[in-house]
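As promised in the previous annual report, we have extended the structural survey to additional targets. Below is the entry for G-protein coupled receptors family 1 profile domain-containing protein.
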Amino acid sequence: MGIHIDWIDLFLSYPPRFSEVSAVIRLLDMASSSNYSSAPVSEFLLTCFPNYQNWQHWLSLPLSLLFLLATGANATLLITIWLETSLHEPIYYLLSLLSLLDVVLCLTVIPKVLDIFWFNNKSISFSACFLQMFIMNSFLTMESCTFMVMAYDRYVAICHPLRYPSIITDQFVARAAIFVVVRNALLTMPIPILSSQLRYCARNIINNCICTNLSVSKLSCDDITFSQLYQFVTGWTLLGSDLILIVLSYSFILKVVLRIKAERAVAKALSTCGSHFILILFFSTVLLVLVITNLARKRIPPDVPIMLNILHHLIPPALNPIVYGVRTKEIKQGIQKLLRRL
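The corresponding C-alpha cell record, generated without further manual editing, is:
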C-alpha cells in the first residue's frame, strides 16, 4: 500500500495545522495495519524461562523424572485395572478415567517443554498451539469434575452403604463419564476458538512454555476483553462448582465418620478420605495461585507462573495414582499379579 505525503509543505507551514497532523497520524496507522495484515502469523515461538536460559538443561532432569513417574504410574494403573477382572467395578472405572486424563495432559504439555529444553526447538504451529490450549482447558476441568464424581462415590459408600450397589452402578459410571466429557468440552471449546479468531499482526513470541490463553491472546492486535472474560467466568464456574460439591461431600463424610464408635474404622476412613481431599485441595490451590500470580505479574518474576503451569501438569498426575491407587489393597494385589506375569 503506497501512501504519498507532502512532508515539505506540511512542515514548512509553521506552525503545522492540527488537522494536517491528525491526517498524517491516521495514514501512518493505516499503513501499519496494512503491513501487519499482509503477513499473518503462522507459528509461535515459546521462550519458556527467558531469565534462566542457561539453567534449562538442569531443570529438564527433575521434569523428566516427574514425567516418567506420572506417565508410568498412570499407565500401570490403567493396565492393571484393564487386565484384573476383580477390579472391574465402578470406583476403579472412575479411577481409570482420572488416570487417562492425567496421561493425556502430560503428553500434551511436557514433551514440548522438554523439546525446548533439550533441542531449543521453540516453534509451534498455529493450529498445534490452539489444539494444546483446548486440551489443557478441557481436560483440566474434566479432571476437576472427575474428582467431584469420585467424592460423590465415597459419600454414597460411607453415608449410604446399603444403597451403594443400587446407586453406583456401571450405568452410573457411563453416564458420569459422558457428563464429564461433554460438559467440559463444550463449555471450554470457545476459549481456543475465540483466541484463534483474533488477528495476530506481527508479534509471535509467547513468554511461556505452553500455549495458555492469556499468553497467546495478548499478542493479538484485537480487543481480547471478551475472550479473557469468557475464560474467567467459565473456569471459575466449572472449577468452583466442582470444589463446592467436593467440600460438601467430604463434610457429610466427616460428619458420619465421627459418629462411628469403632476406632479402626474411623482411622481408616479419615486416612483414605483425608488424603483424597488434600490432593483435591492441592489441585485447586495451584490453580488459584496461578490466577494470583498472573494478576500480580508486575510484582512477581515472570518465571514463577510459568513454572507453576508446568508443575500443575506434572505433580497431580504423579500423585493421583499413588494416593488413589497404590494405597488401595485391591490395586496393590492387582499390580503384584501384573508384575508376576511379566
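The chain is about 75% helix and 5% strand. The mean pLDDT is 82. These points will be discussed at the next consortium meeting with the crystallography subgroup.
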